Amino acid sequence: MLVLALLMVGRPDLTALRASPRASLAANAYPGACGLGSVTHLTLLLALLPTLGYGPVEQIIANLRGQRVTIQPNLAEVEPGASGEQREITVDVANWTDEPVRLIGGTADCSCTVLHDLPITIAPNETRSVAVRIALSGRPGIFTRKAAFLVDDHGFKEIGFTMTGRILKNSQPRDIAAEAR
Fold first, then answer.
1. Range(s) of the domain holding residue 30
2. Tens place of pLDDT per residue across the chain (181 aa)
3. DSSP class per residue in 110-162
4. Which of 10, 20, 130, 148 is most buried as measured by Cβ atoms within 10 A of its Cβ?
């Protein structure tokens, strides 16, 4: 859509293409092939970096951003439920350093609690799953909440993530986590 909008605004002059299509296409074939070749080479380079010992793509991106510890997904989706219900999600915390880090705490407010998993030590280049319980509260509709973990990695640092979900209209709230037990 963006390309079409830019073409409409820029309105390229196509009279040369209409007058002699073969000559016009031949004149633009080399720059087009160079552009396509560049994109292909860049894609291959990015695909080969993990096999050349630079680690998985997630680690490469984290290193470029200067992140030593990351959370995936950065935007976690919570299952829909009525106000008053409990939901549990799992996020993966990855340690991209060459030394262990400790995940020592997390958000604990009226709507979000990091479960019994903490504290944990995450070995170098390891990913661990951590459970987070969310108490759905508020009016029906879509919600977004921020949460964070406290990491001991050369001092205390907070790494955050976001949760989103939907609170449904329902007169009888159910605790799905309790029913599963």
1. 2-49
2. 888 888 778 777 778 888 888 888 888 889 889 999 999 998 888 777 666 666 677 777 777 777 889 898 989 999 999 988 889 899 999 998 889 999 888 776 656 666 667 889 999 989 999 888 888 888 899 998 888 888 988 888 888 899 999 999 875 445 555 555 5
3. SSEEE-TT-SEEE-TTEEEEEEEEEE--SSSEEEEEEEEEEEESSSEEEEEEE
4. 130
Residue with tokens 């973990």: 149
CB-count exposure of residue 2 (10 Å: 0-12, 13-18, 19+): exposed
Does any domain span residue 61?
no
- Report the distance separating Cα 35 and Cα 44, nearest Å: 14
For 132, the token pair is 């987070």
Non-local (6+) Cβ contacts of 142 within 8 A are 164, 165, 166, 167
Residue 156 within any structural domain of the chain: yes
- Tracing tokens 């705490």 back to the chain, one arrives at 105
